[in-house]
Amino acid sequence: MSVKIKPITDHESYEVNNHTVFKDSNGNWRSKNDLSHKERQAFIQYENIVIKNPKFKKHTKALYKG
Fold it and tell me: What digits encode the pLDDT tens for the residues 1-21?
């Protein structure tokens, strides 16, 4: 299963396999739908590599194959 991650608004919301993941008022990542284990792991990896990296001025799409 592949996991597609697409930024909607950098640092605020992302689309993970058609599920919206967003930051709540406490700074935690949330989704109205439950993500699978692979989707959660892919998003955590994306967050560590892209979102938290100050060298990325604009966040990019990503595809994780698993």
Answer: 799 999 999 999 999 999 999
Number of residues that this document lists for the chain: 66
pTM: 0.89
Q: 3-state SS of the chain? A: CEEEEEEEECCCEEEECCEEEEECCCCCEEECCCCCHHHHHHHHHHHHHHHCCCCCCCCCCEEEEC
Query: Residue 14 burial by CB count (10 A; 0-12/13-18/19+): exposed, middle or buried?
Result: buried
Distance, CA of 43 to CA of 41 (rounded, Å): 5
The Cα–Cα gap between 5 and 20 comes to: 10
